[in-house]
């Protein structure tokens, strides 16, 4: 089976590599789409992903062995009179669900406020949409320590080279539930020019008062007053790019009799733009639980290929190293349309 799968991967790689030989340099259909559906008052976005997964050692690693549908999204946004703005994003992967439902107001070029469902800005790896991430999956600390969306108020802006994001949310994701307590978040960042590229520094923090609240996808329950803090650095130049980020959260865990659990996450990504259409990347992803007593390292090698303005491919090779466990290996790939 392994030899058959390797042959299949080689055939896919050959097909992807030869696509530019047949592609036209001009893309008139993409131009027509943008002219019709990308305006200041009404902008339509579409993201469709087709995925494949293969685990070499364990059917439970890397999604097992299967084909799947990735992000399947419809995104509508725009600006209207008197400084107001809106956004509405749906995902259709399993069932129709709301991801973003926002109404906002722009005070100035450096300040706006958004009400509704919004990303909480607690990790740099959560910021991009699934069509723009460096790898198929985000760093594990994102799913472990936070919800991808929160409902509440967000104040944000970019004055000069600085940026800020302050939020006040229910703290319970998109469940729309609340116990009359809130989660407060903050990010402060600075972007410096660097040899034709940029270097960004940022700090994240959160204080969640919500009682008996699930912590990410860990299965752990916070009894309240959970804190999260960390920072990141991002480098982006024409030749190389990368991100390093560390996050830590502490809370009294109901699962451990109210004792304080500490989860630490760290990842470092380094990538190279080897051509106008291709990127090669590597990421080290570390995750550690204090009371639960387990830690692991996930190494991912990636290749990203932009076939056209609207079509792209990603191929990831993964190795999971756990304490006292055999190393597990897997490969995954995605073909996507993003407009």
Task: Summarize the structure in words.
- The chain starts with a helix and ends with a strand.
- It has a domain at 67-299: Beta Barrel (Porin).
- The model has no long low-confidence stretch (mean pLDDT 93).
- The protein is built from three helices and 18 strands.
- It is mainly beta and 339 residues long.
- Strands 1-2-3-4-5-6-7-8-9-12-13-14-15-16-17-18 form a 16-stranded antiparallel barrel.
- It is globular and about 60 Å long.
The average pLDDT is 93
How far apart are the first and last residues' alpha carbons, in Å? 36 Å
Query: What percent of residues are in strands?
Result: over 45%
Q: Percent range for helical residues?
A: 10-25%
Give me the secondary-structure category.
mainly beta
Give descriptors for this structure.
339 residues; mainly beta; Porin; 16-stranded antiparallel beta barrel; two-stranded antiparallel ribbon; 11% helix; 55% strand
Please summarize what this structure is.
The chain has helices spanning 2-22, 28-37, 140-145; strands at residues 43-55, 66-79, 84-91, 97-108, 111-118, 150-157, 162-169, 183-194, 197-208, 213-214, 221-222, 226-236, 240-252, 260-273, 278-289, 294-306, 311-322, 328-338. The model has no long low-confidence stretch (mean pLDDT 93).
Topology:
Blueprint: H1 2-22, H2 28-37, E1 43-55, E2 66-79, E3 84-91, E4 97-108, E5 111-118, H3 140-145, E6 150-157, E7 162-169, E8 183-194, E9 197-208, E10 213-214, E11 221-222, E12 226-236, E13 240-252, E14 260-273, E15 278-289, E16 294-306, E17 311-322, E18 328-338
Antiparallel strand pairs: 1-2, 1-18, 2-3, 3-4, 4-5, 5-6, 6-7, 7-8, 8-9, 9-12, 10-11, 12-13, 13-14, 14-15, 15-16, 16-17, 17-18
